[in-house]
Write a structure and sequence with these properties.
Among the domains are: 142 residues, 3-Layer(aba) Sandwich (Rossmann fold); 152 residues, Helix Hairpins (Orthogonal Bundle), CATH 1.10.287. It is 69% helix and 8% strand. It has 30 helices and 14 strands. The radius of gyration is 61 Å and the shape is flat.
Length: 957
Amino acid sequence: MRIKNLYIRDFGIFSNQRLEELGSGVVVIGGYNRAGKTTLLQILRHLGYGFPRGEIFPPARGKYDVEGELFLEEGSSCNLRISGLAEPVVSYSQKGNQQLWSHREIYNQLDLLTYHQIYTISLDELQRLPKNFPGREGEKLQSILLGAGLGDLVLIPQLEKNYLKEAEKIGGKNGTPGVKEFKPYNAAIREGLILRKEALHQVEEYREKQTRFDEINLEITTGEEELRSLQCQVTRLDVLKNNFADCHDKGRLEILINNSGISTREMEIWNGLPPGSLERARDLSPRMLNASKEYNRCFERFRDAVVGDNINELKERYLTHKEEFTTLFQKLSGLQEKLRNYQMNEEDCYRQEAEIVGTMDQLNSNWRGDLRKVLEISIDSLQQDQLTQQIEQYKELFTKRRVLEAKVQDLKSEEIGLIEVLRDKGEDGSENNLLRYFGVSVLFVFGGIGLSLINVWAGLLLGIAGIVGIGLVQFYKYSTESSLQVERRGLKNQLISIRSQIEDRERELQKTCHQANFVENSLQKYRQNLGIDTPISPELLKDYYRQIQDLKRDIMRMQRLEEKMELDYRELSQQLERIAKLMGLLWGDNLQSPVRELLSSSDELFAFLERGIQDLNLALDLERSEIVLNDIVNEVKELVDHREDEDIVDNLDRFIKTGESYAKYQELCVKVEVLQSQIMQSLKPDRVRDAMALMGVEVNDTQQLFAAFEEYYTRFTSVEDVIKHYEEAEKSINILEEKLKNWRDERQSLRDEIDRLATTENLEKAQHQIDQGRARLRPLAERYAVNNAAAFLLAQIRKGFIEKTKDTLLSQASGIFREVTGGAYQQIMPPEELMQTDFQTITAKGLVQETAEILSRGTREQLFLAVRISRIKEIQPPLPVILDDTLVNFDSQHISRTIDLLLELARSHQIFILTCHSQLVKYIVQRSRDSQYWQLEDGRFSLVQGEELVDYLSYTI
């Protein structure tokens, strides 16, 4: 599964942000601190689970609202949306026959904690025990990291502890019989053993006591029967005493009923009517009167409003066209407003056309107001940009040409100046000076030779002195001329350089002129396209182009207004024709005029429509009042037996009077029934029914029971007579109860003696107590043994499973760790206590490090990253992986190796990398061509190239 599109409507810093067409491999999201990376991590982490209550999230502007489009493994896609704090809702755009998944199935049924710890990796998840992990649940985290079915293994220690706790609650730690739940049953067994030893008594005394006990029982039974008879008599007298007045009133009311005067026929009629008929008749009488008055009032109002004698025909004509009247009247205000808008738009259209024609004449008199010539000119924003660019290019080339021409002219002037300076410096005379030196030296030599003929020493001195003197003079002249020669040589080199610059500038000038001519030709094409015959400057051309563009936009705007007016004209025409037609049907006026005439007479049509709706309302009121009156008459006919030749109002009055007489009769009957019900209620208790049963009455037959009570009532002349018999019976009961009390005391004394002497019964009781204690002790002992055995087996299973899987759990993670560390570490092993949240490592030299705590921070983070990548590869199908500045503590070599691993993982998994470090993005750009890059700034996303994101992060950081 991968996230194809993500739409964040409202969450923290994000508002209406879209990430569309997300890459299926590595997706890098870069931004500086507080740009929203951590908020995005929370969204991606909870996308498949919702935002649970109790966790701290950045506040929403209104309500959290996040939606993602997911691409599933089988090729289908779905939308997953979170609204507020509710669970995610999954929807499919095209269902077909594909399997529909819930949001939990999409995420492989992983719980939020597992997805959090495995797939959303920040620096916190690379610690031995993350800060946000639930307290004291290290074993659960270890089971998540190791996998291999260890999730259920975490439950075994708790189950083992529960079984041991249950066993200890039953029998303590050692199962001693005298402790915990064993204790009461063990004590009962001991008491039974003692009771069995003490059960020894005399048999003869037991038999005498038993005989007297039987005699006293007989006396008590006889006395209790006599007492029950007296108590039933008291109960009957008590009920009669309490109901004597009701029985008297019932008899009096029955006499009034017999003298009521209601005929049998009337009783049959009223018995056949439904309940509430009298109240209904009383209600119908004023309603019928009011309805008749209302009908007459509505009839008069409608007759006064309309023109014509046949009122009913006019009413039906209005009601027939009620829907069309109502529809047209509902549209009346909109129609009036639309007509006003049409007239205003028509004036506006005339004004715009005049302004456009005037502008066209100013720009080009050859157009002569022909709008098509302007519309046929092809201009758009792209051409305008190209024209602007070419004008700017022309200006740059023109400026450049002037600068180059001036530069060439300056260089040529400098060339002429150098030539003049060289001419002033003269030619090089070093060879002539040397010849002169040799010539003068020869003269001195010959002079010395001649003088030596006279004086040898004088001749020798003359020759040597002459040669040396001439040499010194020549040396001085040579040194002076040598500096001039160096200066002349420098001037010549400078002259060569200037001539070379002149050639370069002339070539550049020629190229610039060629480019300027090309641009000038392009601008000439724009002039021809715009219909410009005379040459104008580029700036005027640009302004002319913009004016034509504005003119074309005004023409198109005017045409759209004309099209809208045409639509409005058609709609207005249809509505006005409907009103005119309706007016003709109702009033007989012929308004089938041309549309333009209907538009001019619209006020008359609108006034007709307003008057017509008033008449229609009066017709509706008349119809409603007629319906109400007919309904009431029909109700009366349903209630009263009515003939057409009789007055229905008189029939209703007679019906009400008869009903009132019947109501009084019914009231007396009800009172009798109430009195009878009250008397029957007092006969319902079981003690009363038992008392009546002694008189031979069938108590289950209600009528027979009541008849027996009425017969019992006739035995007494007054309530005082009843009270007298009641008091005599109570006195007899008191005497008999005293006797029974004495007999019962004696019987209880005999029972105690018999129980004391009942040796056999005590023995049986003791044995029963022993057997019962043993029977109850056995299941407890069995439960104690089962719990201890279960705890032992669970401990053995856990130990065996750990030993069996210990060496194979982390083989894949070891390979990843070895590759990240460049072979510095060869293997990861679980700790000796497998469920402890820690790992052992083996270095390249074979050194075993017992805990991850002794590793450096970067190496420790690489270890936990390797374990998580291993688990990600094991879980299928693949889910998105999110890394939030996970590699910040890695050096360049480890970052490089880790990125290679992530790019390999990206072949099967979508990977989100959230970072603020440009160097990390640079590594990814160098190693991947398929990765996608997003720039995050102040809660806003933009898709960029990798190099752009590197530059952005380098600047901000």
